Amino acid sequence: MSASPSDAQPVVHAIHENPDWFGPSADAFRERGIPYREWLLTDGGAVDLDEPPPPGVYWSRFSASSHTRGHALAKEHTRAVLAWAAAAGRRVVNGRSALEAEVSKVVQLATLRRHGLEVPRTTAVVGTADLLAAARGLVARTGGPFLTKHNQGGKGLGVARFDDVGAFAAALAAGDVPTPVDGVTLLQEYVPPADGTITRVELVAGELVYAIRADTVHGGFQLCPADACALDPLTGAPLLPPGAQLAPVPGQSLFSLDAEFGTRPGEDALLAGYRAVLAELGVEIAGVEHLRAADGRVLTYDVNTNTNYNAEVEAVAPRSGPGAIADHLGALLRAEVARSAVGHAGVAPPAGR
Ligand SMILES: Nc1ncnc2c1ncn2[C@@H]1O[C@H](COP(=O)(O)OP(=O)(O)O)[C@@H](O)[C@H]1O
Ligand SMILES: [Mg+2]
């Protein structure tokens, strides 16, 4: 953690556990002259509850896949810091309720459904004893292939397709179904995207930043950036990612900007639904994923509380994702500074802040 509790200057406190993903945000803060401090919560550490949290705005970009980077304690550490900051009245962006949504596809899907959005039919299985019976039940309802997913997922973790219950039973018997970190596996109907792409809608403070299309034909379930895909050790050619139909083509991006998103029929209602879901989940910065089925239905299946930075899309987008986040956090920081100046002048700050 690079923050020192004695620092009196209000800053944006950026809480995260993956330095590889932070560069674009650091650039956006620096370009705008926004003071910020990184709290890298990776290996544990102390939170002194007897001290007030340093002043400023707290922004969590905790990621559900943190445990895959060896940061198994990051979730509890982030929960502790966010609880401490919120209880002291600090302005927190993507706080504790956002973290609970980030680590639970059950929470995401239930909330999407509550707001009238269509989601793939899904059974959540806690533990392993009921997996096979639940798969039978799902296939009896859907009559088609299904996916396994980890409730606390990200990066396509645990996402595998099964065409029937027999194939799933064989994989279970062979020990080929990995155990999720929280013990909760989702079984979900597999709905092939009609045009081979999924769409990820990036929202900051209720505003659409842009929508990204991702090519699942070449990218599969993990949608790794082309230069990060696994390569064949013998030929050097890209390997077929899990769920892909064709190997990625070197030099050809899996991601593109959907510049029209928001203007086509039905997309206004989809956006309104996403805003309502994010408001309920306390999520101010999000990337929400959906696909369009062959019958025209739009199914939403993933709420990410992080932006998915992509250099090719950023290069052509009318607005920058990290830039939009920095603008939002910078405005909140200015409001905090103004508020504390008023407080120091002897005027009581609003209750609860
Ligand atoms: N129900 C589904 N039917 C077909 N493809 C899906 C479905 N759910 C997810 N996928 C594909 O798998 C990818 C990973 O699934 P997702 O739920 O987004 O998990 P993660 O949190 O790991 O990103 C998606 O981007 C999409 O390409
Ligand atoms: Mg996803």
UniProtKB/TrEMBL annotation:
Coiled coil: none annotated. Keywords: ATP-binding, Ligase, Nucleotide-binding. Residues 109-333 form the ATP-grasp domain. GO terms for biological process: SOS response. One of its GO terms (molecular function) is ribosomal S6-glutamic acid ligase activity. InterPro entries: ATP-grasp. GO terms for cellular component: cytoplasm. This is Alpha-L-glutamate ligase. It comes from Miniimonas arenae.
